[in-house]
Each structure stands twice: as C-alpha cells, then as structure tokens.
Design a protein that fits this description.
It contains four helices and eight strands, in the order E-E-H-H-E-E-E-E-H-E-E-H. By secondary structure, it is α+β, with helices and mostly antiparallel strands. Helix 1 packs antiparallel against helix 2.
C-alpha cells in the first residue's frame, strides 16, 4: 500500500496531509451498491405518484427520507474514498483541520493555546457497534484526538497504529518547540 501521509515542516509550520484509505475492490462493490440502491429508490419514488391511500403515501415519504439519507452517506463515502484527504496545519498560534473532497472542503480552526492532550483515539464501543461504525462506507473511524476547551476533537481517519504514532510524534515534537 502506498504511503497516504505526507509531512511538510519548517520552523514556522507543520503540514500533514492524509489521503483517504481506498480499497479498489470495495470501491467497485460500493459503486454497484450505489447503482442498485439508486434504482430501488427511483422505483419507490415512481410509485409515489400513483393513486394510493394516504397511509401508503406516508409510508413512501418516510421510506424515501431514509433512502435519501443513506444514498447521500454512501455517495459521500464513495467520493471521500476516491478523492478525499485530511489536512492538519499547525503554526505558532493555531491548528487547522480540513476535510476535503476534491477542491472543496470544510476547515475548522483551533487556538493552539487552548488545545490539550494529543493522543490516540480509542472508542469504548462494544465490538458489534464498533464494527458497524468503522465499516468501509462510514467515514468516522478516527484514530487521533485532542481536547479543546473540554471537548474532544477527533481527526486522522483510517490510520493504522504506526501511522498514528508517526503523526502523534510529529505533532508533539513540533508543538514543543
């Protein structure tokens, strides 16, 4: 597997870029799943315009709401796995966390003085729940965390133990300067 992590550092800033974990076989299966799931949703949507009683229409509406939610989540996961990346930028005053898909992204800014306790993130979830939450189509398997004003902020998606240690070491050694 190629190295997903690139680290650029100088005296003024540390920039870590983590590319999304991508498994080509799982991506193909996810694409097939998206296509079939989309067809099912369109079939239900087409039934919405036929002459059904009110309770059937309510059922279709509720079904379509759930369908749309999961359709969005899976398309997001597919796009994230293909072209997603996380950026962690630290300078003398702030930390920036960015999740990008393509050229678009969301950046969160944190005051470095208010950040405490960078460490590996381990969820205390039971095994089944942890397995579901860390499945390939979920983008929430965080491996790093810090505390900001008594709130835990997770980052570092889909890292193995060595990658987690490497990033933690780089961050902690840069902040100590």
């Amino acid at each position: 597997m190629f190295d997903r992590i690139s680290i650029k550092k100088n005296d003024a800033a540390l920039e870590i870029e983590i590319k999304a974990l991508k498994d080509n076989k799982k991506q193909q299966l996810l694409l097939v799943w998206i296509a079939l799931f989309s067809l099912c949703g369109l079939a239900i949507f087409s039934q919405f315009f036929y002459d059904y009683d009110k309770s059937s229409k309510v059922f279709f509406a509720v079904y379509l709401a759930f369908w749309f939610f999961f359709e969005f989540k899976v398309i997001y996961a597919y796009r994230w796995r293909n072209i997603g990346k996380e950026k962690i930028i630290i300078d003398s005053k702030k930390l920036l966390l960015t999740k990008e898909i393509g050229k678009r992204g969301v950046t969160q800014t944190y005051d470095l003085e208010k950040i405490k306790d960078f460490k590996a993130f381990d969820t205390p979830d039971p095994t089944f729940i942890k397995m579901i939450n860390t499945s390939y189509w979920n983008i929430n398997k965080y491996n790093l965390v810090f505390t900001y004003e008594d709130i835990k902020v997770p980052f570092g998606i889909d890292l193995d133990a060595n990658q987690t240690k490497k990033i933690l070491h780089e961050i902690k050694s840069f902040i100590k300067k």
